[in-house]
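Let's sit down with a protein and look at its sequence and fold side by side. Go ahead whenever you are ready, and we will take it from there.
>
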Amino acid sequence: MSVHPKKRRIWFTKKRIELGITQTQLAHKLNVSNRTISNIELGKRNPSGPLAKRLADVMGFDMSMFYEDQNEEEPRSA
C-alpha cells in the first residue's frame, strides 16, 4: 500500500535535525540531490523502496513510516 505524498513529514524533519545533520549532508551521504531530500520532507514525493530503506538505515527508523499515516510526527525506531 502506498500513501500519496500530501503533507509535510514533520517526523522526518525532526529526526534529521535531532541527528544534527543538514539536508545537504544527508543528500551527500545517500548520493541523492538536496532537492530529493527537500521534496521528501515537504511531502511532495515518496522515496523509492531502496531509498526509503537507505534513509531508514542511516537515520535509525522503520522504513514503513514513509508509507503510513502522514500525520504521525514521531518515527518508530528500527
In short: The longest helix spans residues 49-59. The chain is about 45% helix and 0% strand.
